[in-house]
Amino acid sequence: MSDQTLSGLSLSHFSAGYPRRKVIENLTVPHLPRGKITALLGPNGSGKSTLMRAMAGLGPCRGELLLEGENLLTQPFSRRAEQVVYLPQTLPAGVHLHVLESIIVAQRAAGGRHSPKRQEEVMALLRQLGIAHLAMSYLDQLSGGQKQLVGLAQSLIRQPRLLLLDEPLSALDLNYQFHVMDLVRRETRRRKHRGPWWWCTTSILPCVTPTTC
């Protein structure tokens, strides 16, 4: 195995789908380097969400999913969940938590203990996303775009090695689309040497170009 493969993400003979319908079959992606944003583009129904859910361990799959040379498919789900975070297009409905509480819960899920310093990290992230004023608002009272931003905060606070974003801009206005993609790009660069990778799929990618990523 080459050093290049060991320092990035790759898929080999990867298949995913449902018991009676194959969606992704025998997909091989040789190498996606660390510290980069990769955009997965395709028409509706082409299997983008199915692929990412399977990579996160949320759907049946087979083959190899290598992260730094380690096959994530052979790991227990709990171990993979520590390394891979999948953000769906919409957050689960009916969650009656404050925004701040929901992000602290996500932080604890990644092994972080609650403390004043940890809470300040959460608030700093909310300020970066422009939603600090929503900290004490309930999730089930937010708009679709606000929920997307909270979901992104929940994902970022966990500091995964691989972040899978499914249509992360779909409910945001144009100004927030640029703001969010700029934030993701900056976080990608900042964390590059810690080993995270970012895989974004969206129909609008205003800031993802070969020169900015």
UniProtKB/TrEMBL annotation:
GO cellular component: plasma membrane
GO terms of biological process kind: iron ion transport
Top-level taxon of the source organism: Bacteria
GO molecular function annotations of the record: ATP binding; ATP hydrolysis activity
ABC transporter domain location: 9-211
InterPro entries attached to this UniProt entry: AAA+_ATPase, ABC_transporter-like_ATP-bd, ABC_transporter-like_CS, P-loop_NTPase, Siderophore_ABC-ATPase
Gene giving rise to this polypeptide: fhuC_2
Membrane topology recorded in Swiss-Prot or TrEMBL: Peripheral membrane protein
Enzyme superclass (EC): hydrolase
Transmembrane regions: none
Signal peptide: none
Keywords tagged on the record: ATP-binding, Cell membrane, Hydrolase, Ion transport, Iron, Iron transport, Membrane, Nucleotide-binding, Transport
UniProt subcellular location: Cell membrane
EC numbers: 3.6.3.34
Name of the featured protein: Ferrichrome transport ATP-binding protein FhuC
Native organism: Klebsiella pneumoniae
PANTHER family documented for this protein: ABC-TYPE COBALAMIN_FE3+-SIDEROPHORES TRANSPORT SYSTEM, ATPASE COMPONENT, IRON(3+)-HYDROXAMATE IMPORT ATP-BINDING PROTEIN FHUC
